[in-house]
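So, is this right?
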Amino acid sequence: MTEHAHSVIWIDHHEARVFHFNAEDADRVVVRPDDPHVHIHHKANTMGSGHAPEDKAFFRAVVEAIGGSKAILITGPGVAKTALVKHIARHNAALLERVAGVETVDHPADQVLLAHARAYFKAADLMTAQK
């Protein structure tokens, strides 16, 4: 895999697609949980929140797939993206500083997601001092 400064992650509770990219090319890694949970509904007058517990092994694998990216955009349709950010905040504060943004997106094709991320970082790079 080529070293790229930027990464975009699309995540839900069934998979994470991690792309390391630059203007010309991209590398893709797909991470899947060992046991993807099914949707849980909360019933009235029962104990518990109705939410599945955090899949720490899945989030650790996603963090490992991020590697040394200097700027990361986290996307996804539901709460998995914010759960990933919370996991990073609890377990890897240095990585949290490299998260450039968190956005809600539906289920884009890989090329659509990459085009969005390239446009996002092109604008973001113009707004920040480069080292």
Q: What stands out?
A: The mean pLDDT is 85. DSSP finds four helices and five strands in the chain.
